[in-house]
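MODEL INPUT / OUTPUT PAIR
PAIR INDEX: 1
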Amino acid sequence: MNIAIWGDELAAWVATAELARTGNRVMVQSKEPGASSLKAEPGLMDAIQQGFADGAIIQVDAEDAYAASVHWLAMHPAHQASALELCSRIGRTAQGDIMVINQSNFGIGASDRLQAALPEPDRQAVICLPDTLQQGQALAQFARPTALLLGCEHDGARLALQALLRPFSSNLQQLQWMTRREAEFSKFAISGMLAMRLNYINELANLADRLGVDIEVVRQGMATDPRIGQHYLAPGCGFGGSHFTQYIEGLADVLSQTRHSTLLKTVLEENERQKELPFRKLWQHYQCDLSGKTVTLWGCAFKPGVASIDNAPALAVIRALEAQGVQIQVHDPEALPALKEALPDCASLKMFDHRYQALEDSDALLIMTEWPEYASPDYDQLLSLMRSPVVIDGRNLLEPEYLREKGFVYYGVGR
């Protein structure tokens, strides 16, 4: 099929690479992703470059892209007006049947509005395919999805979409057809549920700190109930990421406007407070005086496996440390370029390519991202490098009892 990709989000470039790999002719307006975090997505740049080399991906201007029979929209949430104008233009210039696949987070009801912008609804259909890709795993998730939610109300487009997605869904057990609005709502509902689970376990962990209870033991006890399980029950210093947060904020606004509910707004507010938890533990340990201190952060990405710091807890901690005049030393295996770009004027911030270099003369180590290389460090080297062996484990990555036996002062989240 001839497919035009519109947008520069992760979903747009992953679709470009995978649709080209499976025999389609894919048209884009740029040679490569613009954001450095997308360039760091495992395998993505290699797949795009291979697509260009094979001629399966071609760079065109917008006028040429209008002629495609399939249009894939993966645009930034702020560009809904541009998407509506685009659909209107596509609909007016189309010579035959067209299919518009909307993977953008424009809110509940947006795909219906895109459909209304097409002048010939019998021959021009909008399908909602919610973006369920996670940074760091996006290519594999697109190629081998565990489930697909498809919002389609046009029989002809349904058959065309089945043919397009067959390379990715032939062995799929969960392929659910629904209306466009139901597909959008489902994605928002999933994000909201996950956010509430994360918020709940963090609330329990904070309570466990006060009660002298190990939240890890409690979490394992909770997981024995099959109605609960272990998924998204890992206490820590808050969640980040742009897409996940956008969906939660979007649903929170809808709930507030239509139901006067503050449920998800409270979750978001509590999550912002949770991001500063490592700083508060450090502040209390040093009895509210951090003057002259040097603090090391291991990890600034919002999760392991990505180069993005979008809404990352590390940003909140760095800002709080900077306000106290602390010398900040940071290591991250992937996200330092993004951190440098986000905080170009932070004079108290130093970045290190090696994790142990970042520990020299440090008065505390704060673990902010659960990168695998932080899970089993050389503890003797940590003791020799640090001025004060204080570890604040914002991801409960390490074993508390062992560290305390080695001579560290250890603070976890509910441990």
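PAIR INDEX: 2
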Amino acid sequence: MSAPPRGVSRAVPGSVRRTATRLADGRELLYFDDSEPYVSGGATRELVDRRDLAPVRRSTRMRRDPLTGDWVAIAAHRMTRTHLPPADLCPLCPSGTGREPGEVPADDYDVAVFENRFPSFSGEPGEADPVDGDPLWPQRAAAGRCEVVCFTAEHSSAFADLGPRRARTVVEAWADRTAELSALPGVEQVFCFENRGEEIGVTLHHPHGQVYAYPFVTPRTEALLRRAAAHRAATGGNLLRDVLDAERAAGSRMVLSGQAWSAYVPAAARWPVEVHLAPHRDVADLAELDDAERDELAHVYLDLLRRMDRFFDGVERLPYIAGWHQAPVRRDRALGRLHLQLFSVLRAPGKLKYLAGSESGMAAWVNDTAPEAVAARLREVAEQGTAG
């Protein structure tokens, strides 16, 4: 699927304008604007990247593990990616006067999305080429796409610091990218996610997330689909919907409930702090959300992130991973259902949950915290935040 030509601009739902251009090496850059004069089209962000960059020619491969059937991407070029640069050299900050040119050439932006310079998946589908010519180790192009989503131009900010209007713009960007990347040849699943905190392994401090368009259905989703298929065969129901309904009925692990969304700590949570957020209506992915659901999501998601930051006394910014699980693109969509998994590796202030022998070696999880206690704490900190 080719990108729009430079400077193409169009309005999208939620009072947002989307403008597409190209970076100097040919990668696509998209601005999602909710502020004037840009949202009305009265002005346009900077569309010319003046850096002297050679065209991108990334070639990533993936190999199939014969013991598990999982695909593993081989992307050696990622060893040279930018790692925790000082603020004045951050490639995600606007490239204003006096700054080292970065990935966004404008002096300012609302939300910006661009193709990752160091992708795990890239290019077009290709023919299989077994490792050493042996069919025991299938190998093929790791076709797909990896994008970076910059939530704000403010380097020292965080998603939780955004207002509802800007959070709504990010939701529009997620939905837009989910729809467009799902249409790319060979893409089987789209995953929007954010890693925050050095404890998680971030390489850039600027508030940002990523979108991966995979050339396969991921192992976690494959496992979910198997369970969902068995559940449907046994009960006729949708597993993810039935879990949401059961959590709402039980109540002990509920964190919040709105008109269109509910959040709960799963009964078999694996991580020290973990919460799932799901829409009340059955939808396969972010692109299927209607305007009312997107509006409420902007508020509810900010609420959850702020509760996470208040979870531990003395921890200002909780390290976390936030990932949107979406139905596969081309098969079993009726078995999938949109939901967010938000979790932290911090088990106490200054203490991390390390995946030791049982979890890392055997995928046999042990959680040192009770899900009901985590849910109670997330309800408690909301009350503290309101009182303050």
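PAIR 2 NOTE: The longest strand covers residues 189-196.
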